[in-house]
Write a structure and sequence with these properties.
The protein is an alpha/beta fold. It contains eight helices and six strands; from the N terminus they run E-H-H-H-H-H-E-H-E-H-E-E-E-H. The structure holds magnesium ion.
């Protein structure tokens, strides 16, 4: 019976000290100063609106930043951005990531990464740690990455919904008998219509100090992903 692990990316599969995927391009030093200036301008305009919970404006912000990344040929530099980010420690794996990805592969568990970050960067980072994931989900119960795609395949800009609404896409969990939700923040656990109860279809696993919902396993902020394997196996 197929099991799905629905996982956030930033600070869940990456270390809690890592930066978000959106900030790594500037931090990498691989892009010119005028990219950084435009990126900062967007940040100053849209960040206050994000804090007000204006999701429409956050989508607009993502779209503008994606266009900027296309303008500066970021897709061709993605592997370099990941390597640079690992070198300067702005992006690090959470402890136990490789063991966790090996478990997922060996056990035939589907892994779907749902993130408000950038698909290609997540894909490259995970490939370095042993997981070959497609962008999107080619088959009903396959693994994949659901985030903002920089390389477009259908000619349309595919701006995803901000993180707190991502899990509202109920089709993400269709076809699975058991779903484990893995995240580091309360909004990572917002799967509407699904109750987090022991023995229920979906169970949540918090990797922060906060106990999110009744019945979830509490792993704490220093939790290793290896610890998770015993709990979900
Ligand atoms: Mg996160």
């Amino acid at each position: 019976m197929p099991t799905l692990i629905l996982a956030d990316f930033s600070k869940t599969l990456t270390a809690p000290t890592s930066k978000t995927t959106w900030s790594l391009f500037k931090e990498s030093g691989l892009f010119p100063a005028d990219y950084a200036a435009k990126r900062d301008e967007f940040f100053e305009t849209y960040r206050p609106l994000e804090l007000e919970g204006d999701n429409a404006m956050v989508s607009e912000w993502f779209g503008k930043h994606l266009d900027l990344l296309v303008e500066y040929w970021a897709s061709g530099k993605m592997a370099d951005v990941v390597h640079s980010s690992l070198d300067n420690e702005t992006l690090l794996p959470r402890e136990g990531l490789e063991e966790f990805l090996a478990y997922v592969k060996d056990s035939g568990t589907a892994l779907r990464i749902v993130s408000s970050g950038i698909s290609e960067l997540i894909q490259k980072f995970l490939a370095l740690h042993g997981a070959k994931l497609s962008i999107g989900f080619p088959e009903k119960t396959s693994s994949g990455i659901y985030a903002n795609d920089l390389v477009l395949h259908d000619g349309t800009r595919n701006v995803r919904t901000p993180a707190d609404k991502l899990y509202a896409t109920a089709s993400l969990i269709d076809g699975f008998d058991r779903v484990v939700v893995l995240g580091d923040a309360p909004e990572d656990f917002a799967v509407p219509g699904v109750r987090y109860v022991e023995g229920g279809k979906v169970r949540g696993y918090s990797l922060t100090d906060e106990t999110i919902v009744p019945g979830v396993a509490f792993l704490g902020k220093d939790a290793s992903l290896t610890d998770l394997i015993d709990r979900i196996a």
